[in-house]
Write the structure tokens for this entry.
Amino acid sequence: MNKQLNEQDYKNAAFDLGVEVAALKAVAEVESAGDGFLPDGYPKILFEGHLFSKYTGGIYDKVEPTISYPVWTKEHYLGGKKEYDRLHIAMALGDGTRDAALKATSWGKFQILGVNFKDAGYEKVSMFVHDMHISEIQHLKAFVNIIRCWQLVDALKYLKWEIFARRYNGPGFKKNQYDEKMFEAYMRFKAEERKAV
């Protein structure tokens, strides 16, 4: 089974939402460098220790300070497959840490945080994570559900990148220039579309 999205998948979702294909591709490009999976077939993830600390009441901050910490920092990111090492350490720390760790991790092509599993259309975070391992189609379906739930369709439709990034990426969006990066990616994809005609 091919795990990657194809052009028709993008077109179907874009038509369904009433947005441009280039807008969807721009979000994917900025969130995951365009690929939802690592070379070994696992979905791309990023484990967020500050969220794990929040969801576990900070009780592991002193025990595992690179896994659980009160304030966001990218200092402890390891990237790629090594993020799974961090996730597995967190999952094994104690009762209730498995779900907390899955919720504190962003998943796949659109880097959806596990804590948003309900908004993505799932009853349990474990069900969401299961589907994130299947294919980028599942990533796209979850993303479509999220932006509908969060009422971000119009922001994407009318290319209001600042509005979109503020809600989708959170309060640090400006510091990380998510809105600017999405705009730049969108312009690149539009230029490619024009060349292809």
In short: Strands lie at 45-47, 105-107, 112-113. The mean pLDDT is 96. The radius of gyration is 17 Å.
